[in-house]
Every structure is written in C-alpha cells, then in structure tokens.
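The aim of this short unit is practical: by the end, you should be able to scan a pair of folded records and say something sensible about each. We start with the first protein, listed as its amino acid sequence and then its structure tokens.
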Amino acid sequence: MTGNKLLFALLLFTIASNGATAQRPENDAREREEYAVYSAIVADHTPVDGGTIIIANPTSLNRKPPRMNDLEFSPGTPALSAETYEDFVIRNHTNRWLTPNFQMKRKYEVVDYREIVRLTDMGQRNTAAGGLMEEWKDFFKVYPSSRVFVSLSRVGFNEQMDQALVHFGWRCPGLCGQWCYYLLAKKDGVWKVVGEANCVVS
C-alpha cells in the first residue's frame, strides 16, 4: 500500500468510526464560535470549482495530533498558544454531529459520512472498469452540483476565544485532496486563517 493510499485508509477509518463516539454538551458561546470557525475555513479553503460543498457528518476524530512542537506553521504565523493546542487535543477525543448552522455565502449540505462512502464507492477502490469519475458516479447523481466533500475536526480555543486550531480537509475523485492544520485568529469579530501546518496534498 502506497503512502497516499495508507493515508486515505486511515482517514476513512477515522471518520467512519465517529458515529459511535459520545459528544460533549456545549455552552452557547463555544457553539457559536465553533461554527464561526467552521464557516470561515470551509468557505475560504474549499476549491472554488467544488460546487455545492458537501460537509461530512460527524466531525472527524483526531485523537493523536502531532505534538505541539511538531506543527510546522508557515513563516510569519502567530505563535500557537499551549492553551489552544491543549483544548484541541481534549476536544478531539470525541466528535460532534453537525447541524446546518454554517454562516457562509457558498452553498453547502451536511451529509452523513456513511452515505458519502456508499455513494463514492471509496471502500472498494475499484476504478479499473470506468476510471476515477466512475467511482463517484452515484455521488454525482445525488449531488450533481458537487465535486468535493470536506471533513472537519473539533476546534480548539484559547481562554479568550480569539485563537483557534482546526484540522480541515477536502476530497475529490481518485487520490485527490488536501488536509491541513489551520490556525485562526479573531479580530474585530471575524475569524481569519493566519497559518497552516503539516499539510498533506494528493
């Protein structure tokens, strides 16, 4: 199994196992900020040619993130606080079921990940007969305006709720996709990406 195929297999296992995991109750402030972070990252970092964005539900588990010192952010990124990192680690021992509370101009749908797997035939990886687009033919029938789906981790925050860390990625037919850790900062009430680390691109 190649490195890329191993990565995708691990991603499949990580998200597919989510449904059996408990989720913690959230206070209103955290709930609001988590969806604000999700909205910022999904709107700005999903390919513009992806059409309607399909968001995998629930969030992906990330129980073993890189150690804080192993997150290699791009030059000029503000320092990741230990508080933000530790909250990210704690939150990602569980997952959460998402609701359509994203605030963004791009069209989206929240879809059960098991349905995405069924429609894209990813568990079979048998594309010899019809090529990569054939693998996703059922997905395109159900979601004709979509070309990708995305997955999100839980969000880690600092105590002031003005710094956030999230793992986000998108997937398209074949071994096509990108996953990164994103650091966001809140300024004047708006979340913006200020750095990315440990990206995997295929």
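Turning to the second protein, read its sequence before its tokens, just as you did above.
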Amino acid sequence: MPNGDINWNCPCLGGMATGPCGYQFRSAFSCFHYSQTEPKGSDCYEEFQQMQECMSKYPTLYGLDKDDEKEDEFAGDEFAELERQVEESDKHDKDSGSSSKEPSS
C-alpha cells in the first residue's frame, strides 16, 4: 500500500493469506516485508518454519510433494518475488485509479 502496509487482497498472493495456513503465511510474509536484516528475512526463520509445518499438512492444496526437500529451505527468494509482485500490483492499481475519469468505489 502507499503507506508501506501489505495489501493482503493482492491477487498475486493467490489466496495464501486466507487459506488454512493464512495466519502462518501472513506472519511469515509480514516478518519478511518489515525485515531490516541482511539477507532480508533472515530473522524470520521461526515464522517460515511454522508456515512450512502448516503447509506440509495440506500438500495437495499447496502443491507440495512429500519427497520435496524444498520445504526445509529458507523461502526468502519466493517472498522477495511475492513482495515485488504486490508492490507492482499496488502501483498498477494506483496508476489505473488516478488515470480513470470514473470515481472508484
């Protein structure tokens, strides 16, 4: 959002913020988004771990393969890409809204 908050309604999040692991996802993504450490999000290990534990309970929903070792990896790169998509979507929405002559509701 323009004030730096996360737009949880961004379609680029693909419903992750509202699924059965939505709380864990929002916690991990928030930690990553506001992280000041280098590499970004490296202080969010516990939040990522909790999210991954929850997602492992729903492998079909989250597209996880039981043999996939990626679950144990730090998800910082994926979160960086999601964050970039959220920012681009918000910028596009803002630009679209400001150029439209119709009032937004």
